[in-house]
Amino acid sequence: QLQGFFTKKVTEMLASLGKTPIVWNESLNSGMLDKSTIVQYWNDGKKALNVKKAAREGQRFIMSPCPPFYLDYPSGMHSIKKIYNFEKEELSTSPNLLGFETPLWTEHIASWEKIQKHTFPRVLATAQLGWGKQEDFSSFKDRVLHALSILDFYEIIHESKKDFLPNPLRAIKHFFSFSSNFLKGNPLESLKRAIENDKEMRRARGEKR
Asked: pTM here?
C-alpha cells in the first residue's frame, strides 16, 4: 500500500506536467494504479494474471517479458526463435497492447561491439511481432539471413548465424559463459566498467565529453 501510495503521487505529478508515466508491472500489486498509467510487463509469473486483469480493465501496456525479450541474455538462452514464437494469446491480441520492447541491460556487456551483437539480428523478431506475425519461423529465418547483408552494408555489427541460431552444444556454452560472468560480478568493477563504457559510447557518437 505504501508503494502504491508513492507511485500514485508520482504519476499524478507527472500527469500534471503533461507526461505519460510508464511503470513496471509490480506497480499493479497495490491495486491503486491509475488507469491512465502505462504498465510495462516484464515479469508477472507464467500466467501473467495481474497484467491480464489490468488489460481487461482498460490499462494500456507494453510487452517485454523476461524471458525471452531481454537481449542482455545470450542467444543460447533468449533465442530469436523464442522471441518470434512468443505467445500469450490474451495479451498479444489485447486492444490495450501498445507494442513490444526488447530491453538490453549493460551490467555485463563491456563494449559497443557486444551491444550490437546482442541487439542484431534478434531485435528483428521483436519488430516483426510489432508489425504482425504472419508466417512460421522458417520463413522468417530466411528473411533474417537476407537482412544480414543489409546490416553489413550499413556496418552494423551482428551475431553470426552459428551464434544467433545456436546448436544445443553452443547454447549450453552461452548459458555457462553468461552464468560465469554473472557470478563473478563485482559492484566496484561494474561501476568502473560502466564509466569506461559511457566514455566509449560518447566517442562512438563523436561527443567530446
From this structure: 0.83
C-alpha dihedral (142, 167, 86, 157), degrees to nearest 10: -60
Are the C-beta atoms of residues 25 and 41 closer than 8 Å to each other? yes
pLDDT in tens, 21-64: 999 999 999 999 999 999 999 999 989 999 999 999 999 999 99
Q: CA-CA distance, 65 to 83, in Å (whole number)?
A: 10
Torsion on CA atoms 112, 115, 120, 126, rounded to nearest 10: -140
Closest CA to 24 of 78, 71, 67, 65: 65
Judged by DSSP in three states, 66 sits in: coil
Give the other-Cβ count within 10 Å of 144's Cβ. Answer: 23
List Cβ neighbours of 14 (8 Å cut-off, separation of 6 or more).
Answer: 20, 21
